[in-house]
Write a structure and sequence with these properties.
By secondary structure, the chain is mainly α. The chain has two domains: about 170 residues, no CATH class; about 300 residues, no CATH class. The protein contains 18 helices and two strands. The longest helix has about 35 residues. The radius of gyration is 24 Å and the shape is globular.
């Protein structure tokens, strides 16, 4: 049951909203428990066998947090923190990486464990909670509020990674279920935009992505044009897929009275790789920065140590995205890019800053866009051989195909005259999608700008205009229509 499924849109969500309104007039605690039960149902719907794991994780971490707070000034509190972090990471490692480890060490047995929904997200949230309790940044909330904070269903599939201090104060103020017309309509509009992006844009380009990468995984060499179409197509697919989910999650939060943190902010408009990670999966970037990079020393021990820490963090970040060498390589590439950025930035600190120009910003944004999209090859490829084969095609090492009308040209052996797209399995009709999506990515305002929302600030929410509501209504209609015609539902980040 994903956000774009009929069962969620017409049964689960209306039932949750109606129940919320009913219980709101009786008790705030009843409202919280209604959301908790709904979240448990949502989680169990994806695999009832994993529901006890979520409940047990909540109980253990809440108890550990209570113990850490009581012993905050003693060494035993530190030991409890280490125990909590170890247990959380151990559970994550068993479910997510056990089979990867056994296969790489050629062990004869395999656990064949099914990955529980959102295990990476609720694990990271609870690690952050334990660390913040130890540091005195947060106090132990009531069990009801803590359970709501961890299990809240809009964040369960693909985040955002919400911190205790971002949600618990809202729950303590009774924001859950206290719906205003402004937040409710803003939430519906944001959800509708996300639904359209997912059903019509991300899933619209998906067949082209699957076709080209399938050809590549079969060991068939792609032409230069086919490889770049594959890269751009997947880059746009994952962009709109994750953008859609982020907006749908925040929209659902607003519809239920809570403001989740911003998790996606036009990352393809980034001027450099660091700016990209400030815009892409924002809550993950902040988690890795605050709970891994800074504890490792950050850049306080010099540029070289800072570069090493960045490399390590991004490799682990790549491994977090998936148990495979392709994800590790993807993280390694991003670590190299961030490390290079910080290295040259460190060298230029003593020099006078230069005024940026429009042309310079456009060039920087374009280079960042290309590098990020090339790195997606490893994220999307199932095997390293397929990924490197795609990279070879991108730089023309697998040959450059031209139409037969160019056969008169005296060109070397690397050039064949079979056409720009020699693999006939590729549906070239979908190519018209690419420039449309690129225009939206680079020139259109994002959903938050369109609605005048800033989820990171505790500011008033403006009522969407009638024009915006009407536009979002149209987007919702088309999103629903296409969603009904879809036979399978998934999000790219669903597997994490």
């Amino acid at each position: 049951m994903l956000f774009n499924e009929q069962s969620f849109l017409f049964y689960f969500l209306p039932a949750v909203v109606v129940g919320l309104l009913v219980f709101r007039f009786k008790s705030v605690d009843l409202t919280s428990w209604w959301i908790i039960l709904a979240s448990f149902f949502f989680y169990g719907f994806h695999g009832w066998q994993h529901l006890p794991l979520l409940i047990l994780s909540i109980l253990i971490n809440y108890g550990l947090g209570f113990g850490i707070e009581k012993r905050a000034m003693s060494r035993s509190g530190y030991y409890l923190l280490i125990l909590g972090i170890t247990c959380n990471l151990l559970v994550l490692a068993i479910y997510k990486y056990a089979d990867f480890i056994t296969s790489n060490f050629h062990l004869e047995y395999s656990l064949n464990l099914t990955l529980p929904l959102a295990i990476s997200f609720f694990t990271f949230q609870q690690i952050a909670y334990l660390v913040d309790v130890r540091k005195g940044k947060v106090t132990t909330p009531s069990f009801t509020h803590y359970c709501t904070f961890i299990s809240f269903f809009p964040q369960l599939i693909a985040g955002p990674i919400v911190r205790c201090q971002q949600m618990i104060p809202q729950l303590q103020k009774g924001a859950l279920g206290r719906l205003s017309s402004k937040s409710f309509w803003s939430g519906i509009c944001l959800f509708s935009i996300g639904l359209f992006k997912k059903s019509c844009l991300a899933d619209g380009i998906r067949p082209l992505v699957d076709e080209i990468f399938s050809v590549s995984s079969d060991g068939i060499s792609l032409s230069l044009a086919e490889a770049w179409v594959a890269v751009l197509s997947f880059g746009l697919q994952i962009y709109f897929d994750f953008s859609a989910y982020s907006e749908m999650a925040l929209g659902l939060g607003l519809m239920l009275g809570l403001r989740l943190p911003l998790n996606f902010n036009s990352p393809y408009k980034a001027l450099n790789i660091v700016d990209f990670w400030r815009r892409w999966h924002i809550t993950l970037s902040e988690f890795l920065r605050d709970y891994l990079y800074k504890p490792l020393g950050g850049n306080r021990l010099g540029v070289n140590r800072g570069v090493f820490n960045v490399m390590l963090v991004m490799i682990l970040g790549g491994l977090w995205h998936g148990a495979g060498w392709t994800f590790i390589m993807w993280g390694f590439i991003h670590g190299c890019m961030i490390g290079i950025y910080h290295f040259f930035r460190g060298l230029s600190q003593n020099k006078a800053p230069k005024n940026s120009t429009l042309l310079g910003n456009l060039l920087a944004s374009f280079v960042t866009f290309v590098v990020v999209n090339v790195a997606w090859v490893f994220f999307r490829s199932e095997k390293m051989d397929s990924a490197f084969g795609m990279i070879k095609s991108l730089i023309g090492l697998n040959g450059i195909s031209l139409p037969r009308s160019f056969e008169f040209l005296p060109i070397g052996k690397l050039v064949s005259f079979t056409g720009l797209f020699p693999n006939q399995a590729i549906d070239l009709g979908l190519l018209v999608f690419l420039p449309v999506l690129l225009v939206i990515v680079w020139f259109a305002p994002n959903a938050y700008q369109l609605l005048g929302l800033n989820p990171k600030e505790d500011s008033d929410i403006a009522m969407p205009s009638l024009k915006i509501i009407f536009l979002c209504g149209l987007l919702f209609f088309f999103g629903i229509k296409v969603s009904f015609e879809t036979l399978s539902y998934d999000f790219i980040y669903f597997r994490f």
